[in-house]
Amino acid sequence: MPDLPTTKGAIEALPLPAKNAADYRDTKQRALYLRVSPAGTKSWCVRDDRNGKSKRISIGRFPDLPISIARERTAKMLAQLSDGADPKAEKAAKAAAETKRLANTVAAIGEVYLEKAEIGRHRLNGKPMRPNSIRMEKAYFANVVRPYLGDRPLSDLTRAEIQTAIDKAEAEQSKAAARFGRNVLQRIYNYAIWQDIVLSDPTRFVSAPTWTERERTLTDDELRAVWKGLDRLHELKGVHISPNLAIAIKLAAVTLQRRSEVIGMRLDEIDRPARTWTIPGSRTKNGRTHVVPLSDMARALIDE
Fold first, then answer.
1. Nearest to 284 by CA among 130, 127, 114, 120
2. Is 249 helix (H, G, I), strand (E, B) or coil?
3. Which residue has the higher pLDDT, 84 or 287?
C-alpha cells in the first residue's frame, strides 16, 4: 500500500485508479488510510485487525473530513476498539433506534390511524368512518397535525408543545384549523393508547378555539337576494358557482337539510307519489333514517 501525501493539494492530485479502488496509508496515524475509487470518491477508512480478522470501518470522506480530523477520529476509535467496542454494531443499533423512532412519530402513527379508521379498526368495536368524516380527518391531519408535529415521536410530545402548535395553527390558519387539528390529534392518541403504543394522552387539557353559537339567520329580503343571485350567476363578476351547485343551495333552503345530504341525494331516495325524500341512516349525521316531505318547489328543483 503506497504512502498517503500529507498536504491537501497532493491528496486532491492523487490519480484515479482504472478499475479497483486504490488505498493509501497514512504515515502518521496507524490503521488510517484513504481509499480512492475509480469515480474519484476519496473515503477515510480505519483498519480493525482484532481477533485475527481485518475489517474496514469508514469514518468520512475527503475533503469534507480533513486529514487532521481524520487522524483524531482514528485515534479515538482505536482507543475504543482496544476497550472492546464494536463500531459497526453501535452504528447498526443507532440505525435501528432511528428506524423505531421514525415508525413512532405522529406522522407515521397518524397514517396508520387514518387507514384503520376507513375500515373501522381505529377503536374497539368501531365502525368505518363516514366518507365525509375521513376526508375531513385527512385534510386536517395533512394541513395541521403533520406540518406542526409530524416529525415528533408520539411518546415524547408534551402538553405544552402541543398547545404551542395549536396556538400557532390558529394564528397562521384559522380557529377551525386549530380546533379540528387538536381533535384529530386526540383521536390519534386514543388509537395509540388502545394499541399500547403510548401510555398517556398529552392532548388532555390542551385548549382550542370553541364554537360560537350561530344565531344569525337570513331575513326574507336577504334570502330573496340570494335566490335571485343564484338565478343570475352569469351576471355576477368574481362568483364561480356551477348551475348544479346553485340548485343544490336552493334545495337546501327549501328542505332545510344539510349540504352533504342534499349533494349526495340519489334518485332511489325519492318517492314521487308520496312526495317524500328518504335519507338513509348511512348518510345522516345521527345515523338514523330521515324522511323529508317535498314541496312542489322542492320537487321542481330536483327535476331541474
1. 130
2. helix
3. 287
